[in-house]
Amino acid sequence: MKPESDNGQKILKGKSISKGYSTGSAFLYQDILSRNLHYYSIEKEDVSRELARIKEAFGRVLEDIESLEKNVKDELGREQAGIFKAHAEILKDKVLLEDIEKELKTELVNAEHAVKNVFRRWANKFRAAKNEMVKSKAEDMEDLSRKVLCSFMRCEVNILENIPPGSVIVARRLLPSDTVRLKRKNVNGIVVEQGSPVSHSAIIARSLGIPGVAEVKGALGEINRGDELILDGYKGTVIKNPTGKEKTFYGEVIDKEKKVQEKLIKKAGNIAKTRDEKLIKVYANIASVEDVKVAVSRGCDGIGLLRIEQLYMYSKILPDEKYLVKNLSRILKPAENKLVTLRLLDIGADKQLPYIDIEDEPSPVLGLRGVRLLLKYKNLLMTQLKAAYILSKDHQIRLLVPIVTFHQEIEELRQIATECKRQLKIRYGLKRKDIPIGAMIETPAAVENIEKIADVSDFLSIGTNDLVQYSVAAGRDNPNVSEYYEKGSDLAMKYIHRVRRSAARHGIECSVCGEMASELKWIKPLIDVGINVLSVSPYLIPLIKDSIRKI
After folding, report:
1. 5 Cβ partners below 8 Å, 6+ apart?
2. Which of 12, 29, 171, 333 has fewest C-beta within 10 Å?
3. CA gyration radius for the chain?
4. How far apart are CA 333 and CA 15, in angstroms?
5. Which phi and psi angles does 12 have, rounded to 5°?
6. CA distance linking residue 318 with residue 355, whole number of Å
7. 129-168 pLDDT, tens digit each
């Protein structure tokens, strides 16, 4: 690390998670519970005013919670709605309000600080309990604290939606729930203290087509809001308050890179063939209407992965069939007649929904995820299946089932899909053909069962991110085992070869939609083992196609 110069220039080193160069203004992002809230002292006569503000905030949050409770009870049942009833009871607890009033009177601080202090105290008290059920209430207190504080500030739980244009996000780490409302036009780069090349921070940076640098130790301490930053996504460095010479150099480099990108985009509409005439399809991984527009403008051959988690995370209540059809129709409008692979909801592990209470698990990444969760909550699954059948009238839809382990999961899902078709026919008179259903291969167990899974699937898609982490038992978001994860790709290639051979025997398509498909060094090895369909970030399509043509 270079010493600071007179203008406060400093070079922070990390690891590249998304290539490219960019400049921008630092936007520091922290969870609301760890932010420095506006603090002010109050007089004794102000206590009643601050208490009234607290009661008003409680009322707004209570209204939202009761609405959520009804929505979840209607969609998923009474048991799932129980968490919201419990949250409502906490807010109605007279002892809690008395404790907050006491805090106001003794500490003479504003409402926000009184709420934050008392809720934190209660959470710590619950966390110290020996009884596991009592201990679990600590998270409820933190969740409610966020809601009440956000109600004070009249903000959404996530502030990334309204960041200024030209921002470089600086954070400890980013989760799916953090980035659900992120707007590409406002973000020039991502800098995180924690993360790996396959962490969510990395995936979001690449999907947005922006540079990203991870493992920048102490970034939140070293960088101040508004600092001018240059990101070098090739070297994995962040320059804080660059010198005039550095600005000139990187300005020229960015212009040059932009011109190269423009040339690649012009050729991207053409099909991609290797030099020995092997056709390779390049699909796009998308989650929004902006993604689809970019994918189509950059020559995608289809949509290989439509993630619907964003729709669920964006919604304050559990989406129903009407909501899904309306929003998916909007997203898919620019896709025209292209093939669309709609992946059924894949939540669990690092992707949580505020209105579905998944029981705390010791190892969430090994727990109730993907198809396991969908088959447990069948109403949740049926809503998605019905929406897909309705959309199939105007779009070439196929369904991808996440985290498949056994062939019986696909068989059970097919039976539920048949029932959904029957209900649509009775309700609307709709007659729909069967939609192709494919399995996402993401675990060594699925590879071991591949013959039986392929036998009941219409296509296969290999998710390399999870396949690698499960193969080497190394979490992709855990920097302590990143070297293990990186070595896992070689092992994954053996699995990919085996899955591709099975798909060929059954005469079905086999694509790779994980991050390995986006890395230039893996494209030739993937093609060598017989993969002829890759699904990547829309922004990478021109580069991937160009790389294929050179093989």
Report:
1. 243
2. 333
3. 25
4. 37
5. -105, 130
6. 6
7. 888 778 778 878 888 888 888 887 665 545 777 789 999 9
Q: How far apart are CA 74 and CA 458, in angstroms?
A: 33
Please give the Cα distance from 330 to 327 (Å, whole number). Answer: 5
**What is the side-by-side order of every strand in the sheet holding 237-240?**
10-13, 237-240, 228-232, 21-29, 167-171, 187-192, 212-214, 15-18
Per-residue model confidence as pLDDT tens digits over 314-357: 787 789 999 999 999 999 999 989 999 999 999 866 566 766 66
- Torsion, Cα of 496, 198, 211, 296 (10° steps): 50
CA distances from 446 to 151, 312, 464, 468 (A): 45, 27, 12, 13
Beta strands in 66-219 (DSSP E): 167-171, 187-192, 212-214
Residue-wise pLDDT tens digits, 410-440: 999 999 999 999 999 998 887 888 999 999 9
DSSP 379-423: HHHHHHHHHHHHHTTTSEEEEEESS--SHHHHHHHHHHHHHHHHH
Spatial CB neighbours of 98, under 8 Å, sequence gap ≥ 6: none
> Is the CA virtual torsion 434, 440, 446, 450 positive or negative?
positive
**Residue 206 · residue 339 · CB < 8 Å:** no
* Number of C-beta neighbours around residue 441 at 10 A: 33
Tally of CB atoms within 10 A around 130: 6
